[in-house]
Amino acid sequence: MLISGKDIAKRLRAELGDKAADLKAKHGITPGLATVLVGNDPASHSYVRMKRKACEELGIASFHHELPADTPQADVEKLVSELNADATVHGILVQLPLPDHINEKEVLDLISISKDVDGFHPMNIGMLAMKGREPHFLPCTPHGVMVMLHEAGVDLNGKNAVVLGRSNIVGIPVALLLMHANATVTIAHSRTQNLQEVCKNADILIAAVGRAEMVKGDWVKPGAVVIDVGVNRVDDDTRERGYRLVGDVDTDAVEAVASAVSPVPGGVGPMTIAMLMSNTFTSAEASLAQKA
Amino acid sequence: MLISGKDIAKRLRAELGDKAADLKAKHGITPGLATVLVGNDPASHSYVRMKRKACEELGIASFHHELPADTPQADVEKLVSELNADATVHGILVQLPLPDHINEKEVLDLISISKDVDGFHPMNIGMLAMKGREPHFLPCTPHGVMVMLHEAGVDLNGKNAVVLGRSNIVGIPVALLLMHANATVTIAHSRTQNLQEVCKNADILIAAVGRAEMVKGDWVKPGAVVIDVGVNRVDDDTRERGYRLVGDVDTDAVEAVASAVSPVPGGVGPMTIAMLMSNTFTSAEASLAQKA
Fold this sequence. Notes:
The structure is a homodimer.
Chain A: H1 5-27, E1 32-38, H2 42-58, E2 61-67, H3 73-85, E3 91-94, H4 104-110, H5 122-129, H6 140-151, E4 160-164, H7 171-180, E5 184-188, H8 195-200, E6 204-207, E7 225-228, E8 232-235, E9 243-246, H9 251-255, E10 260-261, H10 268-291
Parallel strand pairs in A: 1-2, 1-3, 4-5, 4-6, 6-7, 7-10
Antiparallel strand pairs in A: 8-9
Helix pairs in contact in A: 1-10, 2-10, 6-7, 6-10
């Protein structure tokens, strides 16, 4: 079975569009997402374009700020401060990576945690890590992974979940979310000995390591559920653009062994955007509650 | 081999005492730890007494505040705010648990993160979780565990570390520290299926689950290193006080299988206090750097 993030995301976007229309009709509030893009990275431009397109489709206002690659740190910070103060902006997304001369941490820490719809603020990650605490926003990709598992009817309770990769934006938060959902979680990574064996022990395997098709059929336990977070370019002369996108999972081989696997593209990617829209909507709703 | 936290802590305390004397001689600064104790819990009183005794031994000033069990939330918060503003206080320890009518989270979140020597603030836990971030302070017990592993010469790189327990103050932070130290980390807990098998797969086993002598000899891989964080009372009529303290590990049985195990008492307990002293000293040093 393929877990189509694309289909789940489509349904979620439709629901969010209805809810946004309702919020506007009843309370006159349009959720607003500010996107900040510094420099000319083509992939970043493409990501921001997709996010803005999703806003448009859902009736979420999109405030886009494009700054030249040599923008000084102070100017980026000034923009973030202005967006923090702007009541029409409910979410602020600073597209990463930022140019080398910018201190990324200082920019991200400046985003008000009530508008940190990416969920990357250390305070937010701390609350996500801790039992009995609720983060303002769940980071989009980890949240998308959890929704996909839920939609696929996967029982996590007491099961072995293996997270391959320990990045701040995927591996670490998804491991924490799986732990709170009562899975037994193993975080594996580049230094892990007998990596194949560790993966083969997983009832649920989350691949977020950034290596093209690293997870082969014989890395997966029969009947396991595999979520592929990777997005890797591999050369492909048959494509006009000269490459194709593949995940961290050898999908065809794994599909024959696993009970379910998410494809790339059409898996986690669309879910990440849907969760960003969801966080922006949630933030707009919360701003209403604060006013009341 | 027994890993004597008591001996390691003794050496660390001696080193810290020398450093504190040096800080006072050169800069006229005495590190200061404020302890806040609300109510009459005997165990809490005993813990705070040990911490204050360690301060005294090391030449760290101890400012103790004892409040009645029915102290209103506002008064506890007022005290914390005053301690935040007091330049002679470098560390603030609010002894847990607080009485039921007090919102523990709100009190803990109020402690300035530059004085949060327990390391429990969500911002601090977030920075501990994230790659490329440095928390102000490492939480005392998890830090103590890491120092014990280091002192015992344990190689963590790529090894299977299993953390039994997922508490905010031990399990979660120690799992994150082991992950940053390049271990492959599994967090197991009450819901874990085949718990014995998971534990038996560990090269390094951290027991922090709060069940007396739960980890038996046949739960441990031959040659593994076992750190016992548990402190449990079991009835014992042969003792004057009617109980004895045991860990989460059946020490005698495990010692015969493991290459090293930490005892209870005399293991993690003394390390926790030494790390609290270390954090208080570090905070005093940092206050000096801020003045310069």
